[in-house]
């Protein structure tokens, strides 16, 4: 009798737990889909996760594991290869798009989609950041800042400074013993970008600003918990300090102009203060500062990580290393005897090295996703994206899908030997009107470093099998502890 009663209780408890789980897993759907009426039946397949947290727990669990792609793969295995899935991400009902055609549409259709980053990211990046401003304002800012950042004349000027710093820094590293290769690379790229923007040379000033920027960047993809000890709280404090420092510089540059003081050496800050559009409108202080923060990310954070990974991947693939090195040696051999240093023309001759960089960008996926918001109801691949829902263009899945790239986990620059990939297949810098504005400068930095590394150095890692962290960017947990060794060429 008692055993029978216990058995019945166990069944009831099991049924109750199952029912509770079912209710909790459907709460978000009931709240957000029921508002759509009949439209809810046109939503793409997927699930909305748990109340409040949605799918964030499974997202963070996947990206803290050794298999970050398991997050999207779980949608594919459960709902098929539709390339479009509903979810609840970063506090809002969302649609994730994972195929070249769907990502292309989201990135290029400015009438249907506008920037839709999480509020926490918006607060950090600033109201007038390239990431957040509407299409027309973005177009204006890109137009008036394109030449000062990525123009032929600007890149020619920056090239010499980048080259000098790379050569001296590689030599210094080779005498230092073991270093955190990634940390030192980020310091190098930060020093370069600070010189380009502010002509800042004093090492202690650059170091202090680099610390602030590291804290700032650490909060961009962190949980928006504004309490002491949390990354987001530290990032907000860092942004405040960076803005205060940049505001001091802006005030100083404007004062010089009012007093007609001569400008001995123009840097990016001077160009941003002086530049104007066809209507004679100039950038205000907030625009200048938010533009600076955006370019810092492209010219420092991304280029530092990609440079590290390209160096490691070259070192791990001797045949690819030799081919890339032969190309650089040929460039030097064909150089006029009176020429000192690299030129932009030589940089553009680095065809194989460019494929190495592109393959690194594809494989590493520094930017795994971008955020948009549907401005109207949008039909896509037979499904509905409701107005106001967030849309996540999942770059990582595009680059790691074997349908797009055979053996996607293999580092293979030769996959770029054929015609360029179709639109939407290669999107490391985004696309459309919101294409990353600093991509040319970042790729130039990477190529100059690899040129000198290939010609005279090698890396010996302490922990070649070191586990990886994938947020906010993929990197070894030990920040690539290694020795940089100068080699003698035969």
Automatic annotation (TrEMBL):
Pathway where it operates: Hormone biosynthesis; Plant hormone biosynthesis; gibberellin biosynthesis
Subcellular locations according to the entry: Membrane
Residues annotated as transmembrane: 7-24
Broad class of the protein's primary localization: membrane
Domain of life: Eukaryota
Classification via InterPro entries: Cyt_P450, Cyt_P450_B, Cyt_P450_CS, Cyt_P450_sf
Entry annotated with the keyword Transmembrane: yes
GO molecular function, one term: iron ion binding
Membrane topology designation: Single-pass membrane protein
Swiss-Prot/TrEMBL cofactor(s): heme
UniProt GO BP: brassinosteroid biosynthetic process; brassinosteroid homeostasis; gibberellin biosynthetic process; sterol metabolic process
This protein's record includes keyword Iron: yes
Keywords: Heme, Iron, Membrane, Metal-binding, Monooxygenase, Oxidoreductase, Transmembrane, Transmembrane helix
Pfam families xref list: p450 (PF00067)
Listed CDD domains: CYP90-like
Gene3D superfamilies in the record: Cytochrome P450 (1.10.630.10)
GO CC term (a single one): membrane
Family listed: Belongs to the cytochrome P450 family.
Functional description taken from the UniProt entry: Catalyzes three successive oxidations of ent-kaurenoic acid giving gibberellin 12 (GA12), a key step in gibberellins (GAs) biosynthesis. GAs, which are involved many processes, including stem elongation, play a central role in plant development.
Protein name: Cytochrome P450
Taxonomy of the source species: Eukaryota, Viridiplantae, Streptophyta, Embryophyta, Tracheophyta
